[in-house]
Description:
The protein is an alpha+beta fold. Helices cover 27% and strands 38% of the residues. It has four helices and eight strands, in the order H-E-E-E-E-H-E-E-H-E-E-H. The protein has helices at 3-15, 54-61, 99-111, 148-156; strands spanning 18-25, 28-35, 37-38, 45-50, 64-70, 84-94, 124-137, 143-146. Strands 1, 2, 3, 4, 5, 6, 7 and 8 form an eight-stranded antiparallel β-sheet that branches. A hairpin with a 6-residue loop joins strand 3 (37-38) and strand 4. It is globular.
Amino acid sequence: MNPVQDQTLRDLLGRQQVAALGTLHRGQPYVSMVPFALRPGGTDFIIHVSQLAAHTKDMLASPQVSLLVVAPPAPGVMAQELARITVQGEAVQYGPGTPEHAVAKTAYLARFPQSEMMFGFADFSLFAIVPASIRFVGGFAQATTISPQALAEALSQR
Length: 158
């Protein structure tokens, strides 16, 4: 990736707070919306979800997921030009009291401080979406597959 693409990626993940989460629901594709934060110094996407939600049950049954983050539409910009990132990876649940949970909770609350009360609800859990494959589109005809290491490097340049 070049410096312009790195910046586009950082802007996208810094500005956009929600993602489409793809799971397997009873063997069929299922897409839902989740707010996300990024694990500091890494590539994991942190989500905080209710056990009552279908996507949470799906991740527990089959942890292979996909996450899509798309830049919001802008006047004069074709939909095909919108920056976006698709992550294929594994959903890993972080149990309360673990070091991973503490780091993920801190990252999530830094981005969504209004969500603090939800951490008191027994049915909510933190998950990390750990990337295995990443496809980044920086604009029209600017698609590239990047490694989790390349994502971490681009994000570390903040």
